[in-house]
Design goal:
three-stranded antiparallel β-sheet, Jelly Rolls, mainly beta, homodimer, 14 strands, 39% strand
């Protein structure tokens, strides 16, 4: 059905991001253990109900430099002790490859960080395209009250390096302070 | 403003495809001389009013294999002696590079054709993604009554080869027959 050599169409609902033909990969609160500042708060939430925190498409695109991977990313609203729900975030394995995100619904931030520590926080709202530059780790953060839904495209062979972020984290976090999304230092970040 | 090395955001209106920050490149009826089957009918239309037939963004992205070009494409409704308004269409100069189109508004067809003559016609409606495979020329055709608006992404160094299509055309055309979009042979097509 998804014939990357001959072309195809795929339904991605403009409102929900979901497809009737292909399912999403779901990430649960428990998949993000260690990634929020307050481990105890996250653990308590998992015990209560291990909710889906975000979901996205992983289509079987060949890892060829001429192909493109694409899909929807949907981050649900919520927070862990004031730290907004977010994706794990990743570098590309081929570090020098960019990614385009087009925000369809919701409110949030694309947090970007280079290995050298340059941090950029790009605000997302419907109709905003974010260009994630080559060499920057990136993470979607939902700072609103509805699902944050983006459409993404990247080079199919770019690859995902989650390990670096899992080990070291991002240098900065997004937390709610007096009702306002605020960028603060990550107390756990390790050089 | 559009800093491809450090990242940026760009507004692309989800309804119109247009941005308040960057303008589009406009193609007029006269730019498509020779590309419709009925040259006389096109000439008469140009004489009446040389309308914009389609427009799209051409952002100053570096032609680097790690970067991505993106933007909106808007094809207006209409026809030339029954042949629907369409883009010129092109191969990529680096033939082995794909392109993703996400239909936001309107009704149409993405006509794809390989150098060997494999023809694929993918129907477009809001919420449909078309995967244009490596090696296929492609052209957007508006078969509806409202603007056909897609969001596209391709590798920034892919390049555009318009010459092959300008010289030879596509093997097939989309024309209105008894009110229905119909794929027919292109009488002008030359091997």
């Amino acid at each position: 059905m998804l014939n990357f050599e001959k072309g195809f169409t795929l339904d991605l609902d403009l409102k929900t991001g979901l497809s009737k033909k292909v399912d999403t990969k779901k990430r649960y609160l428990s998949d993000l253990r260690g990634m929020f500042a307050d481990d105890a708060a996250l653990e308590a939430m998992i015990k209560e109900n291990d909710d889906v925190i975000y979901e996205y498409h992983t289509l079987p695109v060949p890892e060829h430099e001429g192909d493109l991977a694409f899909g929807s990313s949907i981050v649900y609203p919520g927070n862990v002790a004031g730290e907004y729900f977010m994706t794990k975030g990743h570098f590309h394995t081929i570090l020098g490859t960019a990614e385009v995100y087009y925000c369809m619904n919701g409110q949030g931030v694309m947090l970007c960080e280079s290995p050298e520590g340059d941090v950029k926080a790009f605000e997302l709202s419907p109709g905003t395209v974010v260009y994630v530059p080559k060499r920057y780790a990136h993470r979607s953060i939902n700072t609103g009250n509805t699902p944050l839904h983006t459409f993404y495209v990247y080079r199919a062979d770019a690859g995902h390096d989650y390990g670096t972020i899992e080990e070291k984290g991002f240098r900065k976090l997004y937390v709610e302070k007096d009702g306002t999304p605020t960028l603060v230092e990550n107390p756990k970040w390790a050089e």
